[in-house]
Amino acid sequence: MTRTMGNDAVEGAIVLTSVVEQEGSQFVSFCVELGTASCGDTVQEAYENLQEAIWVHLNELEVTGERDRVFREDIEGDE
After folding, report:
1. Which residue has the higher pLDDT, 71 or 43?
2. CA of 61: how far to CAs of 66, 70, 71, in Å?
3. What is the reported pTM?
4. Which of 5, 43, 52, 48 lies closest to 25, judged by CA?
């Protein structure tokens, strides 16, 4: 299952891809662009836990002043 958080990419916005895969009795969720992961007992729980982990990750980037550097590297890597 793949979902994007948001629609099309626009200036000032990012599109994040999440992948949820079953591993044994758990579902593992992973954000491709950030390398953030979580898990849950159901697909929905894994996805919701990933959303929370993504917000924590993005907030921490903001607090530490790393947001611009991380996203600049991501954009430059795509060119």
Report:
1. 43
2. 5, 8, 10
3. 0.73
4. 43
